[in-house]
Write a structure and sequence with these properties.
The chain contains 26 helices and 20 strands. The strands form six sheets. Strands 1, 2, 3, 9, 10, 11 and 12 form a seven-stranded mixed sheet that branches. A four-stranded antiparallel sheet has the order 15-17-18-16. Strand 9 (157-164) and strand 10 form a beta hairpin. It is flat and about 100 Å long. With 686 residues, the protein is α+β, with helices and mostly antiparallel strands.
């Protein structure tokens, strides 16, 4: 039989709905399983006014219980025929008596056990307590009590609809009794009786409620698109779409408008005003230019001029505020804002944002020199200086506009006479803001972004603020990933160790480094290594290849990536695979031997001599190849020594009876292994 359960209430916040339904489903599934009640599947539905479960094929009877729970061995459970603490503890834990103990023989000996068995009860007798506990155990980010009730819920509960087949599951919580009645849309529906779950699914729609969240979402998208003109499109933000879906029970789109005068403000500001505060969908033309129009989704079934007019008035007030903030900000030179940052604390141990900017400038100077951008030095340092200036602007001071950090700074910079490249750098120094986001395209944004992030990362590690588990309040993982992604995307040849140490220098000079310097350096570099592994893995390179390279060296990320690419390519070649097999054989022989000194006088045959000469010649050749970072050629060159190694093994017993000869041969192989391990630990490849 089908089971239907609906919790009716006053409108809950949109952000609560999805998680509430997930928790309700998981808890109910757990309770049915614990109570040995079989079922076929649980579907959830929800609106701001209701949480709904529909469960298919709920068994009419519990399954019979017949289980044997094994305890400790007889030797542990009894001493001199009397139960020990271990034996008594097991029995108590099972809720049993000593008389119920059985001795069970196993391959490992005799063990005590408790057998539990009972006949199943009728499901309809068990369901009232299950549903009651389901309500009482439901949690929300914020709950409330109302009237004289002790029950806590997101919003006051108004009704329970509970049916098993065609019978009401009767229970009551603080005067709210379950029934076969539900309520339709608050304004366009009525109270109605339900005979079965299927009957409910028909009548709820007749009462203008779309309980399926996905169906409501699709309706909103379809209805919006149908209401647009041919040359129009909407900004369909996924987060906003989900929020609006969870705010209504039946959608109806209404097109509103606002004065074209507001279009003098950057359209990103207007779009955020509409989305964040008013939950409107902005309308653009096909070229992406904002039009003075928007879509509001009414919780209703038809058009309302009052709803349209009311929303237009509210939006006009919001846009007037945004325009005022924007115009006021343009009256203040960005340099003045930089001075104000002296009073804004970045982190209590790391000082103000102004101090952070000054440290970032020193790091930027290092990068400018290392990367050869002296000719862009003035613009880069100007970008670093002004990058955070918009944080104290009127616009960013308003909560809904905080996501425009960088964008507003770039706009103000351009309108206040800064160079285009500086303006772009101010905006791009925040890129990437999230996984898959844009990456900075100009060197101003690249260097400003790296300098800012490395100061945050090393600074936080330097005062003991290291991410643990899911806790990462300063988004240090994101900072490290951003640095690595920028370096990879822009092919920057820079030493991570040097970069970290320059940052440590600035922290020491500021007197804010609290942790041991060497320890901090090591921890930050290891933190970087894990992020590099993640990024290379996302690029679909094999984990064993990545580890073989990064375990050797990851200081220059571009070099490390080039080595990974070269190994990936060479693994398709038979000669390279043969090289790896030979290498593993050598690695197994030398194991932890570190000595590479070879005494040629101890050679016993020509194959030892030939291999030694070949190895020395190879070492000289690869030195020049690696100097030029020709990694593919390096691996090709390594394969040339395989024939000499094969003949050596065919004609030489490494583990000679003479210890001196044996050690000399192991040293020779260790010397060869080092040649193979110049850029990666190849013997670690699978």
């Amino acid at each position: 039989m089908k089971l239907l359960f609906e919790i009716g209430m006053e409108e809950i916040p949109a952000r609560f709905l999805n998680q509430a339904l997930t928790d309700l489903k998981n808890n109910f599934e757990k309770k049915l399983t614990t109570n040995r009640i079989k079922f076929d599947g649980i579907k959830t539905y929800g609106t701001p006014r209701r949480l709904v479960l529909v469960v298919d094929e709920v068994s009419e009877m519990q399954e019979e219980l017949n289980e044997l729970n094994m305890g400790p061995s007889k030797e542990i459970a009894y001493k001199d025929g009397v139960l020990t603490k271990a034996g008594l503890g097991f029995i108590k834990g099972q809720g049993a008596e000593e008389s119920q103990v059985e001795l069970i023989k196993t391959d490992k000996g005799e063990y005590i056990a408790i057998r539990k068995s009972s006949k199943g009860e009728a499901t309809e007798k068990i369901l009232p307590e299950i549903l009651k506990s389901l309500v009482l155990e439901e949690t929300f980010p914020k709950s409330m009590r109302w009237s004289d009730k002790t029950l806590r819920f997101a919003r006051p509960i108004e009704w329970f609809l509970a049916l098993y087949g065609d019978k009401v599951i009767d229970f009551e919580i603080e005067g709210i009794r379950s029934s076969n009645k539900s309520k339709g849309h608050r304004f366009f529906g009525k109270e109605f009786e339900v005979a079965t779950a299927d009957d409910y699914l028909l009548k709820i729609k007749e009462n203008n409620v779309i309980i399926d969240i996905d169906e409501r979402k699709q309706m909103i998208e379809k209805m919006i698109n149908e209401s647009l003109k041919e040359d129009e499109q909407v900004v369909m933000d996924k987060g906003l779409l989900e929020e609006v879906t969870n705010l209504i029970e039946y959608p109806y789109p209404i097109i509103g408008s606002f004065s074209e005068d507001f279009l003098e403000v950057p359209q990103e500001v207007l779009i955020i005003s509409m989305q964040v505060h008013q939950r409107y969908f902005p309308i653009l033309n096909k070229k992406g230019k904002l039009l003075p129009k928007f879509v509001v989704i009414r919780n209703g079934i038809d058009y309302s001029e009052n709803v349209k007019t009311g929303n237009e008035k509210v939006l006009s007030a919001r846009l007037s505020d945004a325009r005022f903030f924007y115009q006021e900000d343009l009256k203040i030179p960005l340099k003045n804002n930089v001075e104000k940052l002296k009073t804004v604390v970045f982190q209590k141990d790391l000082g103000t944002i102004y101090s952070k900017i000054k440290r970032s400038e020193k790091i930027a100077n290092f990068l400018i020199e290392k990367l050869g951008y002296e000719y862009k030095k003035e613009d880069i340092l100007r970008t670093v200086e002004l990058a955070k200036a918009d944080l104290v602007s009127n616009m960013i001071g308003e909560k809904e506009f905080t996501k425009l950090q960088g964008f507003m700074g770039a706009d103000y910079a351009l309108k206040l006479g800064e160079k285009d490249s500086v303006s772009l750098g101010i905006k791009e120094h925040y890129y990437p803001r999230f996984q898959g986001d844009l990456l900075p395209s100009g060197i101003e944004g690249i260097i400003a972004g790296i300098s800012d992030r490395i100061d945050t990362l090393v600074g936080c590690f330097g005062v003991g603020l290291i991410p643990t588990g899911s806790k990462d309040p300063f988004a240090l993982r994101r900072s490290a990933l951003g640095i690595v992604n920028i370096i990879v995307n822009s092919s920057l040849n820079v030493s991570l160790k040097d970069l970290v140490n320059v940052s440590l220098d600035t922290l020491e000079k500021d007197g804010v480094l609290k942790e041991d310097r060497a320890k901090t350096e090591k921890e930050v570099l290891e933190f970087f290594k894990q992020r590099i592994i993640n990024i290379f893995s996302d690029m679909k390179y094999r984990k064993d290849i990545i580890n073989s390279v990064l375990d050797k060296d990851f200081d220059n990320i571009i070099d490390a990536l080039d080595v990974v690419k070269a190994i990936t390519e060479k693994l398709q070649k038979e000669k390279f695979v043969k090289l790896l097999q030979t290498l593993k054989r050598i690695a197994n022989i030398v194991k932890n031997n570190k000595t590479k000194e070879v005494n040629e006088k101890l050679f016993q045959n020509e194959y030892e001599k030939t291999l030694y000469v070949s190895a020395k010649d190879l070492a000289v050749e690869i030195q020049e190849i690696l100097k030029n970072k020709e990694y593919s050629e390096y691996f090709d060159k390594l394969t040339t020594i395989i024939p000499a190694i094969d003949k050596y093994f065919e004609n030489t017993m490494v583990m000679d009876e003479n210890n001196e000869i044996k050690q000399n041969r192991i040293n020779q192989l260790t010397y060869i292994l080092e040649i193979f391990d110049k850029v990666a630990y190849l013997n670690k490849l699978d």
